[in-house]
Design goal:
The protein has 1 helix and 5 strands. The protein is an alpha+beta fold. A 5-stranded antiparallel beta sheet has the order 2-1-3-5-4. Strand 1 and strand 2 form a beta hairpin.
Length: about 90
């Protein structure tokens, strides 16, 4: 399970790190995302299969409450990093 989550985290983190712009996608806390293709992430309905809910937005991955869950690091303006802490969305 953890390996599967890590497989998701790396591609999601890379796509955000390299595609962040002033109009880049930055989901709100409580919204859901899912992997799209190999290195993409898109907004998702929380009831969709393989969706993850954004639990919190932090400035460091170490601040995510559950370190076993996936996270996305978004490179922002001026070297600022925004970390989206995720958990599996409730499906259903």
């Amino acid at each position: 399970m953890i390996v599967a989550l890590l497989v998701l985290v790396v591609p999601l983190g890379l796509v955000y790190a390299f595609t962040r712009g002033s109009d880049a996608f930055s989901p709100d806390v409580g919204s859901c995302v899912k992997q799209s293709g190999t290195n993409g992430a898109v907004a998702a309905e929380c009831s969709e299969a393989n969706a993850f809910e954004v639990v919190s937005k932090e400035d460091s991955a170490a601040k995510c409450a559950d370190q076993a869950q996936p996270r996305i690091e978004i490179a922002g303006d001026g070297g600022r990093v925004e970390v989206l802490c995720l958990k599996p969305a409730a499906s259903g």
